[in-house]
Design goal:
115 residues; Immunoglobulin-like; 0% helix
Length: 115
């Protein structure tokens, strides 16, 4: 199982390629691919539908920040030809984007009242 962390702000999304590889780092097709997030109030998953019956060695998804700042995980699981599962996890920390501009709103000018 591999774990890494990605930091995005609450206004961002990021494409993620998920590859299933053998011990030598070569593509290794699996079936039964399942992709899930631990907290859909923090991040959401997008991308094309994955057919779990077709052996494949890689898939692509898009992870988008959707809510408050916080942490959530993206987990990918596949089933090897011998029936053993292989799972990897990618951690996401969503941070506040912060201010990027200052906006002034000016009212209608009026006469200064006489003293």
């Amino acid at each position: 199982m591999s774990t890494a962390t990605v930091i995005i702000n609450n206004l961002q999304e990021v494409p993620v390629s998920i590859a299933f590889v053998n011990a030598a780092g070569q593509p290794s097709p699996v079936t039964g691919i399942a992709i899930a997030v631990t907290d859909s109030t923090i991040i959401k998953l997008g991308g094309p539908a994955i057919d779990p019956t077709i052996p494949t060695a890689s898939v692509a998804v898009v992870v988008s920040a959707v809510g408050p700042v916080g942490s959530a995980s993206l987990t990918a699981t596949g089933i090897n030809p011998d029936g053993t599962p292989v799972t990897g996890t990618l951690e996401f920390n969503v941070t506040e984007a912060g201010a990027s501009a200052v906006v002034f709103e000016v009212g209608t000018p009026v006469l200064i009242p006489a003293p």
